[in-house]
Structure to design on (284 residues):
């Protein structure tokens, strides 16, 4: 396991992943009952029919695609970060499903920094995007190559907020029967969650939060307070705050990775997340 972690971490932090894109592009319904979503599957090498654990991936405010997509929103134009994570998880033996929740609703290019108050209600990360996550979960549970009780949810930024909301015990939009994610990972989420959990946040499965204290878009202090209050109420949630790391610290672009704090945070978070997945997605 240690050797595998070292290999995968080196591949990710040096961004030397293969140029291959998602191996399958799929369509499946959101649990909102209205939207047909686009998804990109990253698959491990064939293993003679063995069922694999899976990870649902939720993009952030900028959407699933590269800023250089030039109107071509396909597997070939996914952002470097999403491709890196998808490839890394597949190499580690997981089936990874990146969900494009913005494109099918008419916003494939996502939104710029500072646009939070202007984003349409149909993209709400607390009331809408969690339904996309559950649509992805339902789809994966139909696949013969997926271990149906071993599926995690991982999101970045706005998708990290959606991850927190999706795993909330007090989410009135999901039934206990739907709540089948084994664990959640939220990278630099906005922990205000539109004020929906002001009386306390408690997840139904373990959740791990990763954020930098120099984040220029969301507040690490707010996330730390959310985690502290949740843990006091019995929530299975943890937080890792990286000194000097910014928003999108794991973005493979030179601008982010030229910050040593971001590079260090990427290495540490990657190691920790691989360990969390390995420990949490065990066969029942």
């Amino acid at each position: 396991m240690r050797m595998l972690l070292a290999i995968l971490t080196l591949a990710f932090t040096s961004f030397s992943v293969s140029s291959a894109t998602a191996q399958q592009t799929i369509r499946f319904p959101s649990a909102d009952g209205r939207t047909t979503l686009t998804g990109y599957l990253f698959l491990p090498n064939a293993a003679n029919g063995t069922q694999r654990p899976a990870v649902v991936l939720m993009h952030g405010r900028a959407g699933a695609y590269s800023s250089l997509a030039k109107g071509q929103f396909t597997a070939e134009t996914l952002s470097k970060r999403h491709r890196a994570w998808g490839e890394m998880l597949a190499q580690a033996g997981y089936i990874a499903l990146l969900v494009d929740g913005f494109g099918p609703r008419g916003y494939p290019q996502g939104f710029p920094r500072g646009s939070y108050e202007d984003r349409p209600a149909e993209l709400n990360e607390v009331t809408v995007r969690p339904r996309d996550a559950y649509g992805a979960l339902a789809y994966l549970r139909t696949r013969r190559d997926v271990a149906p009780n071993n599926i995690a949810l991982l999101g970045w930024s706005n998708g990290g907020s959606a991850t927190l909301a999706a795993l909330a015990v007090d989410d009135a939009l999901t039934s206990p029967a739907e709540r089948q994610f084994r664990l959640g990972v939220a990278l630099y989420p906005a922990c205000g969650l539109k004020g929906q959990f002001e009386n306390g946040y408690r997840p139904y499965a373990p959740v791990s939060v990763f954020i930098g204290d120099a984040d220029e878009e969301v507040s690490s202090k707010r996330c730390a307070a959310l985690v502290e209050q949740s843990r006091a109420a019995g929530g299975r949630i943890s937080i890792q705050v990286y000194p000097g790391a910014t928003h999108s610290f794991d973005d493979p672009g030179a601008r982010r990775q030229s910050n040593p704090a971001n590079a260090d945070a990427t290495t540490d978070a990657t190691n920790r997340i691989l360990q969390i997945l390995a420990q949490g997605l065990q066969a029942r």
